[in-house]
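Run log, item B.
One chain of 154 residues. Sequence copied directly from the ordering sheet:
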Amino acid sequence: MYSQGQGVPQDYVKAAEFYQKSADQGFAPALAALGEMYIQGQGVPKDVEKGHGLLRDAKARRKAQEQKSQGAAYFIMGTLYFDGQGRPKDLAMAALLFQKAADQGEPRAQNYLGVMYLKGLGVSKDAEKGCGLPRDALAKGVGSQEEIDHYCPQ
């Protein structure tokens, strides 16, 4: 709004303040906009190096957000095959989709896939993968230590 003067008087200093608040929250478009402002010296002291750094951060953040979105999509598709919702139940396809999601860091998929390996559902039984994947998910706040302890005694 302030950078373009849309509905308010154009004010690059205020725009930079708002972009900074959003950038502090990790919002990639704000990082990019703030980077451009530093490169051009609009509302902030001109600092090309800092601007390029913010643009690199924005690009990395966007990539991470895209991967997270892809992981979530693969996970949701996997649950449809796992449960047979709207398509025939296909545990092998569910495992494939959960693996793609797990590769993107999706913790729910790591948890599901771990159980599938422990029980041999759609995949060959593999205790190492079956215990490791849920532990990875638990580190991200998904799953329960009790369940891991039950299936994977040390």
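Observations after the first pass:
- The mean pLDDT is 89.
- DSSP finds seven helices and no strands in the chain.
Flagged for discussion on Thursday.
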